[in-house]
Amino acid sequence: MRMLGAKKRFQMNCYYWETFFLLLPSLGFAFGFRMIFVEFFFVNDLRFLPSLWVPITIMLMLLATFSFLNFLIAKTLVRRARGSPSLILQ
Hints:
Elements: H1 8-41, H2 53-80, H3 85-89
Helix pairs in contact: 1-2
C-alpha cells in the first residue's frame, strides 16, 4: 500500500476495519452457535440459563478487547511500513 502512495492514516484504517469486519461475524457466529448448542443439548429446563444480557455483555467485552488489540496491531504495522515509496524501490 505504501508503494502505491497510500497515506499512513488510510493504511491504518484499512488494516483496522479489515480485521474488525472479520472479527465481528466470527464472534457473533461463535456465541450464537454456542447458545443454541447449549440450549438444545445440555439444558432441559430453560429456567437454569442466565439472562440474555449475560452472554451479550461477555461478547461485547470480548469485542472491545479484541478491537483494542486490533488497533495496537494495526498501529504497529503502519509504523513498521514507514518510509517513502521511493526508498522502498531502491
